Amino acid sequence: MNEPKYETVKQALLHQIEAGELRPGDRLPSEEDLMKQFQVSGITIRKAMTELANEGVITRIKRKGSFVNGAQAADHSSRLIAFILSAEDNYDVSYMKIIKGAQQAAAEFGYSLIVEWSNENLAVERASIQKMLDRKVDGFLIYPFDPKQSKDNYLFIEQNNIPYLLVDRYNVDHPSYFSGCNNYDGAILATRELIRLKHTKIKFASYHFFLHSEQERFAGYCSAMRQAGLPVTDDHLLTRMDYDALADSVMKRDVTALFCSNDKLAVETIEQLTGRGVNVPQDVSVMGFDDWDHAGNLSIGLSTVRQDFEEIGRNAANLLNQVIQGQTHGGSTKILSGVSLVLRESTCENPYA
After folding, report:
1. Residue 197, phi then psi, degrees to nearest 5
2. What pLDDT is attached to residue 73?
3. Taking the complete model, does pTM exceed 0.85, yes or no?
4. How much is the pLDDT for 24?
5. Spatial distance between the Cα atoms of 106 and 317, rounded to a whole number of angstroms
6. Terminal-residue alpha carbon distance, the chain
7. What is the CATH number for 193?
8. Hey, which bits of the chain come out as E strands?
9. Do the strands 139-143 and 164-167 form a parallel or antiparallel pair, or are they unpaired?
10. I need a surface site. Which of 204, 211, 304, 310 has the fewest CB within 10 A?
11. Would you state the pLDDT for residue 325?
12. Which residues, listed in sequence order, are joined to residue 303 by a DSSP beta bridge?
């Protein structure tokens, strides 16, 4: 007697399908038309459609609409998600953690995760995408090397009406679903800590400044510096590491602290500077970003900003599942995992302050 409105809509549509009024492959009326037909809200219609999609009765395709499945409705989905990684180092533990988090979350929704490595090559990335399309995957997670260069590959996926989500890095000029960490706030935490340690001559060292994630970290650094009344000029950004010149600047006290855009660069910087007679942290404090597994096991433990890679993977799979099920719309939802500061031996109070 008190059947929910969405259930009334759902049962009415099921009746039309069972009676042959709506046949396999037919497009269902638009949300607006259904609202008028049943005299209910859009929320009610979306609830009914989501349940039908979850039960395999219909398939919802972004920007195309909802379509009736055939008799094999329950099996229309491959229950596969492809994870395409265009990585520099296939054995980087951070990638493994992201994959682990994504696999765990995908399994909760009944999906299997297929991992493809494309090694920074756009043609290989495109071939991997086509390979996964041939396997009828339900969606893509993509960790791109350069998201701007991969734009045509994203367009290719969109042309095939398959949802996808970018992980860790994205193209600000091409809106997409995204899972990453809070780069901006993390950089503010790191820079404020160096300032708390009485450093005023702090430079930002970039690894791949074409990445928006590194630009966000630089923006956070600039914000913290300016809030402290410290100047920021073009000279404060290092995009090409000249270690001889940097060591000279450190010994002249022109630089007392370095905030590196990732741990890989921070570790390399410490090795290069110590090889030139610079003492870390006595002569210069070095801060990283990521918290690699190895960051605490070096001869000089690395102070850094920790991001939760497994959480990034879980968030990615969770959001992609919502998109596949038609529960999230708009194409540009972004989920940022939190960050925290980890202090070790590579930073100390400025002895010359």
Report:
1. -85, 15
2. 40
3. no
4. 80
5. 6
6. 77
7. 3.40.50.2300
8. 58-61, 65-68, 80-85, 112-117, 139-143, 164-167, 177-181, 202-205, 237-238, 257-260, 285-287, 304-307, 334-337, 339-342
9. parallel
10. 310
11. 84
12. 287
Q: How many domains does the chain have?
A: 3
Give, for 12, the enclosing helix (H) or strand (E). helix 5-18
What phi and psi values does residue 180 have, to the nearest 5 degrees? -160, -160
Tell me the helix, strand and coil percentages in the chain, rounded to 5.
40, 20, 40
pLDDT on residue 76: 47
Identify the pLDDT of residue 87: 76
Max distance between CA atoms of the chain, in angstroms, equals: 85
Residue at which a domain ends, from 50, 74, 98: 74
**β-strand 65-68 against 58-61: which pairing, if any?**
antiparallel
Residue 101 belongs to some domain of the structure: yes
Closest CA to 46 of 234, 336, 340, 327: 327
Contacts of 185 (CB under 8 A, 6+ apart): 220, 339
Same domain for 243 and 299: yes
Residues 198 and 214 in one domain: yes
Q: Can you give the residue range of the structural domain that contains 28?
A: 5-74
Under 8 Å between Cβ of 142 and 134: no
pLDDT of 90 reads 61
Quick one: tokens of 319?
A: 């959001």
pLDDT of residue 12: 92
Residue 23 domain flag? yes
Task: Say what the pLDDT of residue 74 is.
Answer: 40
Q: What is the pLDDT of residue 77?
A: 60
Distances from the Cα of 219 to the Cα of 121, 187, 214, 260, angstroms: 29, 8, 9, 13
DSSP class of residue 28 equals P
CATH of the domain at 9: 1.10.10.10
In this structure, are residues 33 and 42 in contact, taking their beta carbons and an 8 Å threshold? no
